[in-house]
């Protein structure tokens, strides 16, 4: 089969710098503050990766190439994730080659194979469908290429798994829902099965319902058909009409929350509903802060930080060091009251007021410079 040529983005120290959706795909938007300069993003020629003074081999001599192979690249979360990865690569003197995700499992396989053929030192797999990736990832490992995976469980002991703490994220939200609404309410739930982050959040939701028997799930809906927010809004409108008793919506992905809020706004139900979501972007902050918004809380990690952690984990493996098998980035609870009281209007404001949102000590070492 002829390989599809991907769009490849190169990044080195000399250059500046959003789960999954195929037929069943999904996953996350969240941050809008970090955008990319197109001249740096779409370079057709790779620059020389630079030596890093005081670093272990091979970083001390430069020339280290790492591939970031995405399943999906569009949306605030993934753009910010890539931006964070590029900044960390720049700090490390790494030539980071970014393969654009197009929600195509077969193309992602081909891109991993291209990275193998290129002879990169490490591959970062950003989301994807495990069943389509396991064999080609094993091929990379057999060639001596290090592999790390973000939010896709490849069930391989040699592949460290990087993830947001989805358990903590969902728990923070549901604890806040009880704080706001008591432990007896009618709920709507937005969910699509089959993808690791949402499935981990769903496990917390199931445990929560067992622990709170007076919380009744009245309706469940969810889709990843594009545009996701509008598609979810269409479903939410039907759910609200069929179950007017719903007072809380658990929508643990910000595109789901956008749809739930849109339907609530259109049905003039905003004063009767509270929506709890995951992830954050500047656009999300604006939606949460809007007067009378039904979207009252979210829990999130900074995707730029997760991108940087992904590059650091890959770099540690290349240097023969152990980043750990499960690398977890902790989330922060963010409420509407937090945003309003602290006059937070952008992701930059959020980072300034919530220091825990700015950085993570996951996958670090003394020789790895901080991303600037």
TrEMBL record:
Annotated Periplasmic binding protein domain residues: 66-321
GO cellular component: outer membrane-bounded periplasmic space
Location, primary (coarse class): periplasm
KW Signal (keyword) present: yes
Keyword presence, Signal: yes
InterPro entries: Bact_Solute-Bind_Prot2 (IPR050555), Peripla_BP_I (IPR028082), SBP_2_dom (IPR025997)
Pfam families: Peripla_BP_4
Compartments (UniProt record): Periplasm
A GO molecular-function annotation: carbohydrate binding
Cleaved signal peptide residues: 1-49
Keyword list, A-Z: Plasmid, Signal
Family membership noted in the UniProt record: Belongs to the bacterial solute-binding protein 2 family.
PANTHER family in UniProt: ABC TRANSPORTER PERIPLASMIC-BINDING PROTEIN YPHF, D-XYLOSE-BINDING PERIPLASMIC PROTEIN
Name the record gives this protein: Monosaccharide ABC transporter substrate-binding protein, CUT2 family
Annotated source species: Paraburkholderia caribensis MBA4
